[in-house]
Design brief:
By secondary structure, this protein is mainly β. The protein has one domain. The chain contains one helix and 25 strands. The strands form three sheets. Strands 6-7-3-10-12-14-16-18-24-20-23-22 form a twelve-stranded mixed β-sheet, with helices on one face. Strands 2-5-9-4-11-13-15-17-19-25-21 form an eleven-stranded mixed β-sheet, with no helix packed on it. The N terminus is likely disordered.
Length: 284
């Protein structure tokens, strides 16, 4: 399946999964609900977050597996939390309940989740409508899978990430920014597929093995900050817009930086189907 089609399906699937309409309810008193989950006997954790409408902020620094504050003014939106441990693997789900009514007034649904920094942690999140800020620099991440339908997305992966191998982002509408200025000895692939919105990426991290980055289906500008001491190869196809690549040269259909072919590591970018400008910036 083409990634552009996958984005449309993601947007429809997230919306259909979270929202159905029957009846009407007015917003109520603002509730702040603080909750925590203990790690138990788990040696690693898979976590899934599902938000239908609202803001999501995720960070590290928790003493328990998870410590969270939920602020909302629709009582039926009290988050559902489930956790179990099987074969030393913890499985955590935090999700907004499916509601079946229209809302009058100004609804509010703000989630602030903090996770333990030490436990190996695989995170997936789906947000149908709302802004998402993921400050994951201190977490011991092994994998990251993000799906958003509408709203801006910010991801900070600037820390030491010895276990992180894969990052997948499927975003429909909204700007997307990601910081990869940490250390990634195990990282193999970054996949980004969006429909509409600007993209800003910083890859000035410490890279000890080749990395494959796939970017597909963007209606908007792309700015990528890249290192000078690591080889970079960029192949761009189906582009409607300008490619600004000061300091790069063209080699066999690819834009390459001066370190390409001489460094032990190469960051390989395949960019396809972009309506907008691409800005490649070398950062010393």
């Amino acid at each position: 399946m083409e990634k552009r089609n996958r984005i449309s399906i993601v947007a429809l699937a997230i919306t259909a999964a979270f929202v159905s309409i029957a009846g009407c309810v007015a917003v109520g008193q603002l509730i702040t609900d603080s909750r925590s989950v203990s790690l138990g006997d788990a040696q690693s954790v898979n976590a899934r977050i599902e938000v239908a409408s609202g803001t999501l902020v995720v960070a590290g620094g928790a003493t328990e597996l998870m410590e969270a504050d939920f602020t909302y003014n629709i009582s039926a939106w009290r988050p559902e939390i489930a956790y179990n441990v099987a074969d030393t693997v913890g499985n955590l789900t935090v999700k907004q309940p499916v509601t079946t009514f229209l809302i009058t007034g100004q609804p509010r649904n703000d989630w602030s989740l903090r996770f333990n920094d030490d436990v190996p942690f695989e995170l997936s999140a789906a947000v149908a409508s709302g802004d998402t800020i993921l400050d994951l620099a201190t977490l011991n991440l092994s994998g990251l899978d993000l799906q958003t339908a509408s709203g801006d997305l910010e991801v900070d992966l600037s820390g030491d990430m010895p276990l992180l191998t894969q990052v997948d982002v499927a975003a429909s509408t909204g700007s997307f920014a990601m910081n990869l200025t940490g250390s990634y000895p195990s990282m193999e692939n970054v996949s980004i597929a969006t429909s509409s919105g600007s993209i800003s990426l910083d890859f000035n991290g410490v890279w000890t093995q080749d990395l494959q980055v796939d970017i597909d289906g963007v209606s908007g500008s792309i700015t990528i900050q890249l290192p000078t001491d690591v080889g970079v190869s960029v192949i761009a196809t189906g582009i409607s817009g300008e490619i600004n690549a000061n300091g790069f040269s063209l080699l066999d259909g690819a834009l390459v930086n001066p370190a390409f072919g001489t460094s032990d590591v190469t960051l390989n970018f395949d960019i396809n189907g972009v309506t907008g400008n691409i800005n490649l910036e070398l950062v010393s």
